[in-house]
Structure of Glutathione S-transferase DHAR3, chloroplastic-like:
Amino acid sequence: MAVSAAISTSSMAPSAFFFARSSSSSSSLLASGKLFRSFPPPSSRRRLSARASSIPPLEVCVKESVSSPGKLGDCPFSQRVLLTFEEKHLPYDMKLVDLSNKPEWFLKISPEGKVPVAKLDENWVADSDVITQSVEEKYPDPPLTTPPEKATVGSKIFSSFIGFLKSKDPNDGTEQVLLAELSSFNDYIKENGPFINGDMISATDLSLAPKLYHMEIALGHYKNWSVPESLPYVKSYMKTIFSRDSFVKTRAAPEDVLVGWRPKVFA
């Protein structure tokens, strides 16, 4: 999705604020106060023409890159929201925020200084769960809802990855816990794939994919570890989702992912 020139937002005064807070689905932010206008890629503009004429771009605050100011940073929860916008072909305005220099306008929107935060129906909404559910209800086409019985598939992989990444003891069992979760996911995708809800990508995929991306990069660098060949369906799932246009457009640079996880590795 093309990005226009930066526009200062230091004087912004949001008209209404609504906050849905959840530490599990939000990440601390980096804020610059720059507004970047995002447009549908050429391949999707024809599909978007009627919709875009009636839907104003959705405003969303996301983490700015540490290594490359002016680019998207490494928050997997922010990417989840952007993936939802991309998969639904919704136009959006992306505000990149630098954590080391949070502007006053952003703290008014998000007093806790967390991302993502999106403006929906004139209200600023925090928490990726709440944002994506609200977007699904307001813009149901194309549908991304995951059936309730499938919504928790792969949900323990992220916490297992973090446990293994932080571990200083190779014999503490954290690697085995992660492998068990990935093995369970491998079996599920083998029987039900290629996506969690079958042939169509859904909200749970968009939540899990950024976390798998962080897992692949962080463990590869800090642990010299990768998903084993004995889990081919996990590897195929990751390759399929990571190659989607929506993912390529919204992913963080590997160097930002590494910088983001470094404090946990060396804590």
About this structure: The first strand starts at residue 7 and ends at 8. The chain has two domains: 7-138, 148-265. Residues 44 and 89 are 7 Å apart (CA to CA). The domain at 148-265 is CATH 1.20.1050.10 (Glutathione S-transferase Yfyf (Class Pi); Chain A, domain 2).
